Amino acid sequence: MMKFKPNQTRTYDREGYKKRAACLCFRSEREDEVLLVSSSRYPDQWIVPGGGMEPEEEPGGAAVREVYEEAGVKGKLGRLLGIFENQDRKHRTYVYVLTVTEILEDWEDSVNIGRKREWFKVEDAIKVLQCHKPVHAEYLEKLKLSCSPTNGNSGVPPLPDNNSLYVTSAQTSGLPSTVR
């Protein structure tokens, strides 16, 4: 069953990219198990929970709202991992780290569309995502490359207004993603 959102207003940045936000939801601050959810479009495929930002919404707030709706979890919002660009779909997604502190038994998308969630070891999640959501796999690859988790959840850095955190998708070329 597809997700239907009446009155949804899409927001775009100055270059015409849709603004999105997502969280890598971890079971603990060790960041070794990540929560994935079933896709609303393809229920047998796993994705990182996230979605479009609403007008006037801050990226961190949008990310927390999206994981609450899609994964039924609440937690401690940590660092901004990066802003990932999907050139094929013209999206830019702010991806945060979130340490899960509460798991709801029933949540909006489980009730409305039968969405499922499952914990994966990071390496397994990368393999699962590489097949059909390579940009989502890049989130976890970037996490592995970033400094080791010495509890980077203590605060969220200010958002840049330059392109220093953009990660471009190399989906079509098959080359590793580059930071520009």
UniProtKB/TrEMBL annotation:
Gene3D superfamilies for this protein: Nucleoside Triphosphate Pyrophosphohydrolase (3.90.79.10)
TM helices/strands, residue ranges: none
E.C. numbers: 3.6.1.52
Cofactor requirement: Mn(2+); Mg(2+)
A single GO cellular-component term on record: nucleus
Entry-linked InterPro entries: DDP-like_NUDIX, NUDIX_hydrolase-like_dom_sf, NUDIX_hydrolase_CS, NUDIX_hydrolase_dom
Subcellular localization, as worded in the UniProt entry: Cytoplasm
Keyword Magnesium: yes
EC class: hydrolase
CDD domains registered for this protein in UniProt: NUDIX_DIPP2_like_Nudt4 (cd04666)
One Pfam family this sequence matches: NUDIX
Residue stretches in coiled coil: none
Top-level lineage group: Eukaryota
Boundaries of every Nudix hydrolase domain copy: 18-144
Region ranges (Disordered): 154-180
PANTHER family reported in the protein's UniProt record: DIPHOSPHOINOSITOL POLYPHOSPHATE PHOSPHOHYDROLASE, DIPHOSPHOINOSITOL POLYPHOSPHATE PHOSPHOHYDROLASE 2-RELATED
Family note: Belongs to the Nudix hydrolase family. DIPP subfamily.
Protein name per the record: diphosphoinositol-polyphosphate diphosphatase
Organism: Smithornis capensis
Gene: Nudt4
